[in-house]
Amino acid sequence: MRFAKLTKQLTQGRDKDKINTLSYLCDVFESYNKNIEHFDEIVRLLIDGAIAEENLEIKGEFFEALSKAAVFHDVEHIDFDKIAQNLDSLPIACLVRGIDILSFTHNLKYLPTIEKYRNHENEYVREAVETAIKEMTG
Question: Is the pLDDT of residue 122 over 90?
């Protein structure tokens, strides 16, 4: 899918179009193709969409796509500050994914942000924090 079409689908598309596009991106990120055209721009587009999206189902799909990108590709050079700055406003499922995503950057500047959720009331968040800390610190 061309970058212009992908951008239009994710920013102006109907909910169904967004979900289909995000599912497609998950498949692309999981593939063995490590030379995805416009990868950095796609990830930045996903970050913006993940924060801006109000529909919780689609918001979750944005975070899922970001998670796949972070797991299967090198994202250490991409700025995820927008995710870190918005963790407090995320629903639990997205918060857990956000913590995971930040850990896969291996950028220690995100460690204090992640650690502040160490005593979160939700067990899944606490588990994500512990896993993230191990991921980042080895």
Answer: yes
Report how far residue 76's alpha carbon sits from residue 106's, in angstroms, rounded to the nearest whole number.
6
Neighbours of 12 (CB within 10 A): 9
DSSP-derived secondary structure letter, 105 = T
Mind listing the pLDDT tens digit for each residue in 64-105? Answer: 999 999 999 999 899 999 999 999 999 999 999 999 999 999
Cβ atoms < 10 Å from Cβ of 76: 11
For residue 61, the SS3 value is helix
HSE, CB side, 13 Å, CA atoms: give it for residue 27: 7
Q: Mapping DSSP to helix (H, G, I), strand (E, B) and coil, where does residue 118 land?
A: coil
**Predicted pLDDT of residue 53:** 97
Q: Helices marked H in 13-91 — which ranges?
A: 15-30, 39-52, 56-72, 81-85
Counting Cβ atoms within 10 Å, is residue 105 exposed (0-12), middle (13-18) or buried (19+)? buried
Question: 124 Cβ partners below 8 Å, 6+ apart?
Answer: 92, 96
